[in-house]
Hints:
Layout: E1 4-7, H1 13-22, E2 24-26, H2 36-42, E3 48-50, H3 59-64, E4 71-73, H4 84-90, E5 93-95, H5 102-117, H6 120-128, E6 149-153, H7 157-167, E7 172-176, H8 183-186, E8 190-191, H9 195-198, E9 204-207
Parallel strand pairs: 1-2, 1-3, 3-4, 4-5, 6-7, 6-9, 7-8
Amino acid sequence: MKPVVLVTRKLPAAVEDRLRRDYQPRLNHDDHLYSSDELIESAAGADAILPCHTERFSSQVIERLPRSVRIVANYSVGFDHVDIEAAKRRGLVVTNTPEVLSDATAEVAIMLMLGAARRASEGERLVRTRTWRDWSPSFMVGIQMTGKRLGIVGLGRVGRITARRARGFDMTIHYHDLQRLSPEQEEGAIFHPTPEELMPHCDFLAFHCVST
């Protein structure tokens, strides 16, 4: 018998095909968000739960999970939606997918900086509403990213990848973190011990740290 896996959200087709091949998946075909009671009820007889960051595994939920459930295998990098101490007490294995989104997040950061610098969203609105006027030297000029200074708060995995992408625009990297990184990790980035000391050295600023 293949292990039974409760899948709490609708996943990409390739992932669901792999689940069908290797397991007995209980899929969420309409991608509705499970309530705690529905999650617990749907997990009856399951060996594993494959949730996303949208499901909350509080201590109360974990205590009520069927004893058949042995692992919560998160389809996410973060696992702060799971009460880890409660999972330990229950003997429940909790896994995540570290680094899988680091490149994607860094690319989005670069996209947002480019969009802001080059006024992309404004230009798109003008095109979509057919209100783009004739060209002029001062119209929608924006600013250039190339050669500017990028400040990064939090030079962890995503921050370091963002810095590498930004160097493709010949940007100088400044950063603040709780402690200075090794020269190998800095890759030439300039450390500032406080956010206040970092700010005067930034033309662009990217936050890659937890909100707290």
